[in-house]
C-alpha cells in the first residue's frame, strides 16, 4: 500500500512538473508570438513584383492541421504523459472536421493542405477511416494534400509505422505545383526523430535538396514548405521545445530554405496560432481543426496567394461541445 502511495506521489509530482513546464512554455511563447494583424496578415516578398507577369499566381488555398481524431476523449493526464489512448470515441472531431470542410468550400480553394496529426493513435483503423470519409468530401472536388504528424507515425517513426501510414494515407513526402507556386511536403518526424529510420531520413533530405533545385530552375514565384512540426514558433533562434524542431536540425533547414528562397513554411502541432519570420521567410503555424490548446479555438486558415505576397487569416470553426 505504501509502495502504491509512493508511486502515486511520484506520478502526481511528475505530472505537476510536466503541466507547470508546459504552461510556462506556452506563456513564454505567447509573449513572444506576434499575432497576425486583423483581419488579414500579409507577407510581402520584396523584389518579386512583376518578376513573372505571364501566368502569375493568384488563388486561395486552405491550410488545416491536427484533426487528431480521438484526442478529445483522451484524458489530459494521459496526453501530457505522451501515452496513447486507444479511443473509438471521436464524434466531436467528426463535427469539427465536417464543419471545417464545409467552411473551406465557401472560399472555392484551389487546394487544401492538412499538416499532420490526422488521428490520435498511429495504426488506429477506426480513426483513420473516419478522417478519410470526411476528407473525401472535399478531395472529390479539389486536391487535398496530407502529411504525417507524430500521432500518425508515432513519436519515433519505425519502418512499420511508416508502412501503415503510406498504405492508409499515401505518400509522406512529395511535391506539387499550382500555377507558379511550388510546394514541398515533408515528413517532419523524419527530421525530428529519425533514430529508428535513419535511411528514410537521409533519403528525404537528399530528395529535398534536389527538389529545391528543381523549384529554383522553374518559373516559380512562391515556394512553400508544408510540415507538421513548426521549425520555430516566433523566433528562428528560440530554444528547442516540444513544439518546434530542435535547434540543431532547424539551423540546417533554415540555411537550406534561405539559400533557395523559400517564401513560407506552414505547420501545425501547436494546436493554436503562431507566426514568425526568418529573414524574408514566413513561419506560419495554424491552430487545430480538432482539440485546441492554450485557450485557442478550432479553425482553418484561409491563404490568398499572389505573385508577390500571401495574405492569410484564421477562421474559427464552432465547437459542438465547447
Ligand atoms: Zn503533433
Lateral arrangement of strands in the main beta sheet: 1-12-11-2-3-4
Question: What ligands can be seen in this structure?
Answer: zinc ion
The helix count comes to: 9
Spans with pLDDT under 50 lasting ≥5 residues? 1-39, 45-54
Question: What are the secondary-structure elements, in order, as H or E?
Answer: HEEHHEHEHHEEHHEHEEEEE
Rg over alpha carbons: 19 Å
The count of domains is: 1
- Highest CATH level, the class: Alpha Beta
Assign the structural class, choosing from mainly alpha, mainly beta, alpha/beta, alpha+beta, or little secondary structure.
Answer: alpha/beta
What proportion of the residues form beta strands (DSSP E)? 15-25%
Taken from the alpha-carbon principal axes, the silhouette is: globular
CATH topology: Purple Acid Phosphatase, chain A, domain 2
CATH architecture call: 4-Layer Sandwich
Tell me the quaternary state: single chain
The largest pleated sheet is described as: 6 strands, mixed
Count the strands?
12
Assigned CATH superfamily: Metallo-dependent phosphatases
Round the mean pLDDT to the nearest integer and report it. Answer: 86
Can you tell me about this structure?
37% of the residues lie in helices and 20% in strands. The protein is of the alpha/beta class. It has one domain (33-316): Purple Acid Phosphatase, chain A, domain 2 (4-Layer Sandwich). The radius of gyration is 19 Å and the shape is globular. The structure holds zinc ion (ZN). The site of zinc ion has 6 residues, from helix 5.
Amino acid at each position: 500500500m505504501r509502495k502504491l502511495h509512493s508511486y502515486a506521489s511520484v506520478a502526481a509530482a511528475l505530472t505537476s512538473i510536466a503541466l507547470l513546464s508546459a504552461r510556462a512554455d506556452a506563456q513564454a511563447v505567447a509573449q513572444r508570438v506576434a499575432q497576425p494583424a486583423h483581419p488579414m496578415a500579409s507577407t510581402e516578398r520584396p523584389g518579386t513584383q512583376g518578376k513573372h507577369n505571364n501566368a502569375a499566381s493568384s488563388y486561395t488555398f486552405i491550410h488545416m492541421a491536427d484533426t487528431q481524431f480521438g484526442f478529445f476523449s483522451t484524458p489530459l493526464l494521459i496526453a501530457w504523459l505522451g501515452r496513447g489512448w486507444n479511443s473509438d470515441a471521436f464524434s466531436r472531431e467528426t463535427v469539427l472536421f465536417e464543419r471545417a470542410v464545409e467552411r473551406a468550400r465557401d472560399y472555392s480553394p484551389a487546394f487544401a493542405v492538412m499538416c499532420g496529426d490526422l488521428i490520435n493513435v498511429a495504426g488506429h483503423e477506426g480513426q483513420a477511416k473516419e478522417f478519410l470519409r470526411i476528407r473525401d468530401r472535399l478531395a472529390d472536388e479539389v486536391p487535398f494534400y496530407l502529411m504525417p504528424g507524430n500521432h500518425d507515425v508515432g513519436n519515433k517513426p519505425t519502418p512499420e509505422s511508416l508502412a501503415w501510414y503510406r498504405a492508409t494515407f499515401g505518400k509522406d513526402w512529395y511535391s506539387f505545383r499550382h500555377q507558379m507556386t511550388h510546394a514541398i511536403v515533408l515528413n517532419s518526424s523524419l527530421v525530428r526523430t529519425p533514430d529508428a529510420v535513419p535511411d528514410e531520413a537521409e533519403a528525404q533530405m537528399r530528395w529535398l535538396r534536389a527538389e529545391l533545385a528543381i523549384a529554383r530552375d522553374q518559373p516559380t514565384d512562391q515556394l512553400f514548405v508544408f510540415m507538421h512540426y513548426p521549425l520555430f514558433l516566433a523566433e528562428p533562434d528560440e530554444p528547442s521545445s516540444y513544439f518546434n524542431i530542435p535547434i540543431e536540425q532547424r539551423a540546417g533547414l533554415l540555411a537550406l530554405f534561405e539559400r533557395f528562397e523559400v517564401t513560407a513554411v506552414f505547420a501545425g502541432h501547436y494546436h493554436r496560432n503562431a507566426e514568425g519570420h526568418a529573414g524574408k521567410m514566413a513561419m506560419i503555424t495554424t491552430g487545430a481543426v480538432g482539440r485546441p490548446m492554450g485557450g485557442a479555438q478550432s479553425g482553418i486558415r484561409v491563404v490568398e496567394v499572389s505573385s508577390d505576397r500571401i495574405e492569410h487569416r484564421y477562421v474559427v470553426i464552432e465547437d459542438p461541445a465547447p
